[in-house]
Amino acid sequence: MGMLTVITLVAVLVESTLAARLPRQANPGSSVLDLVPLIDGHNDLPWNLRSLEKNQINDFDFNRDLTQDPRWNCTSCFTDLPRLRKGKVGAQFWVAYVPCSSQYKDAVEMTMQQVDVIKRFVDMYPKDMQLVYTADGIGEAFAAGKIGSLIAVEGGHSIDSSLGILRVYQELGVRYLTLTHTCNTPWADASPVDGEGGTPEHNGLTEFGKTVVRELNRLGIMVDLAHVSHQTMIDAINASVAPVIFSHSSAYAICQHHRNVRDDVLKMVTQNGGIVMVNFYSAYLRNDGARGTIEDVVAHINYIRNVAGVDHVGIGSDFDGVSMVPEGVDDVSKFPAIFDRLAQPKDGEPEWSSDDLMKLAGLNLLRVFSKVEQVHLSLTANQPIEDLIPTNEIPNDAKACRTDL
After folding, report:
1. Number of folded domains in the chain?
2. Which of 121, 235, 240, 376 is the most buried (most CB within 10 A)?
């Protein structure tokens, strides 16, 4: 049985049959990354391409040690092609992020520019990276020895409250949408409303927000709940008929940051069939403000495994989007260290079998992605949703920028 067939079968049937291909070792560790794709749910390199290169990448060389480039040796720069290879990255969601300051202004334009730079960037390295749009595509790229590269949009402000724009993003290859970033949209609360001094604006999702979730399901775009408020998480899971993802979040019980996922939602993720992909930002790993370590990453992975189940945890580093990453997981080359550490459990920690480590690496995300695709296929006969956001839900500062009201 070929690698592609095996990966697809596992993704669809939620069976780790690949374990039979691993030599039975007491401590399999990072060797599983040679058999299944390590899928990282979130990397903000495209924003660094914009901020450092102005998206002018024709002469940009990604196949070099960027730590030796004074401009790229920055506090939020952790990615280059040699380190991705050393880190055994099998697939990567490259994020089209634009700041909340663009909301109601040029968010759509900027997002389109970021989608464009992701596509051009990946196409520049055809021997090493391959644009993919499906779960099977990830398997095909991995079997060819390439890094499957997927496009994500981070922040619901990027759709400007328009389902038509959402459909265009799907046609361009966007495969998950983070419902908010750090700002509320006219239809969803972001996580800062749960922080000190925060006040909910919508108490979760509005009715139009639930419509956005339904159209994401119809389009086969994964619903990403990183960055949203606690109530928005609950509302979105209840509204979605497909599994949801948290592309880069950690466990609230360990670090009480509003970006993290509380136990009640972790249990809902289990019922929904979704996945929480652990974030490496130290501020989301520790309460004391200190730099984290690989032990903190392991603690969050183990906690989510214990509460939600081993089928519902993954890796979502947030490299190139944060400024303080854990010691021992300093850049994209260090992913194998996490798997080697999990294979050497300490007292009170769960044992990680080969099957378990493969699920964490990528099979859980492949299962979720495949299920989202199945839901999409089941809804293809449905007409596109044409609902418009109610005029009274559009903030006055947004109305001032629109000509269709």
Report:
1. 1
2. 235
* Closest C-alpha to 130, from 190, 75, 77, 89: 89
Domain of residue 232, CATH code: 3.20.20.140
DSSP-assigned letter for residue 321 = S
Confidence of residue 27 (pLDDT cuts 50, 70, 90): low
Q: Quote the longest CA-to-CA distance of the chain.
A: 65
Length of the chain: 405
Tokens encoding 176 = 């998950």
Residue 297: pLDDT over 70: yes
CB 188 within 8 A of CB 204: yes
| Residue 10, token pair as written in the block | 């596992």
Confidence of residue 402 (pLDDT cuts 50, 70, 90): confident
Cα atoms in the Cβ-side hemisphere of radius 13 Å centred on 132? 25
Task: Output the 3-class SS for 223-268.
Answer: EECCCECHHHHHHHHHHCCCCCEECCCCECCCCCCCCCECHHHHHH
Per-residue buried b or exposed e for 220-249, using 16+ beta carbons within 10 Å of the residue's own CB: bbbbbbbbbbbbbbbbbbebbebbbbbbbb
1 pLDDT higher than 80: no
Residue with tokens 């499957």, as numbered in its chain = 148
Residue 338 token pair: 């996490």
Range of 206's domain?
34-381
Share of the chain above pLDDT 70, in %: 93
Q: List, in sequence order, every residue forming a beta bridge with 92; answer none if it has no partner.
A: 40, 149
The DSSP output letter for 387 is -
Give pLDDT, residue 70.
95
Whether residue 258 lies inside any domain: the answer is yes
CA separation (Å) from 359 to 124, 133, 367, 371, 405? 31, 20, 9, 15, 48
- Catalytic positions, written as ranges: 42, 44, 154, 181, 227, 248, 318
Torsion, CA 109, CA 45, CA 323, CA 250, rounded to 10: 90
In tens, the pLDDT along 66-122 reads: 999 999 999 999 999 999 999 999 999 999 999 999 999 999 999 999 999 999 999
